[in-house]
Write a structure and sequence with these properties.
Blueprint (H helix, E strand, L loop, with lengths): L1 H24 L3 E11 L3 E2 L1 E6 L6 E9 L12 E7 L2 E8 L7 E2 L7 E10 L5 E9 L7 E11 L7 H22 L18 H5 L2
Amino acid sequence: MMRVLFLLIFLAGLALGVGYPMMLDNVPQREIGTWQVYDPARGFRSAEAVLSPGDAPVHIVLDITTVGHPSFSADRTVLTLTADFDSRTFLAKTLSFSGAAPHLESPQSSGRIFREEVGVIPDVREGTYVFTAGPGDAEGLELASARLILQSGGAAYDGRVQPTGFILMAIGFIGFVMAMRRGGGRPQNPNSQPPPPRWGRNARNKQ
């Protein structure tokens, strides 16, 4: 019985720790809109998006197009982005784009596009949301453009779920192994006697 219980705990942890992120990756999303928040001619500017509760959760993504082959560093900020609703800032992020995989803007262009996930608005209220991009402290980086992308649908990632899954996997695995060891042999009755031998000297003496 204990083996089954710990096995179920392990499987539940596997679903949360491994299956949960895979499920979120496969949930379809729809694009709400795209806003240009930087270009060399006009510089940085804000973007306004009218959202409603039916859009939740809203995923905030930022794409930048660079000139040449930039080198990003985790300790250098390429862009900053703040999000405001009802004159209150609810999100402020510094974006380094370190680890972002590039892809070409077009076969004829040398520009490379890098994408970074900024955050998620899990609960959306009816109204206008203002997103403001700004420069970071990274040097030697030439930007051709920066675009804000809002996507609706999918599921908001809960950072507590995956660690909980790993903990359950560990508990289930350890408990299952211990249950297997305890149930490996049956306890012997100290009052029981082994059956008399049927062959050999002792068998002849008892006949």
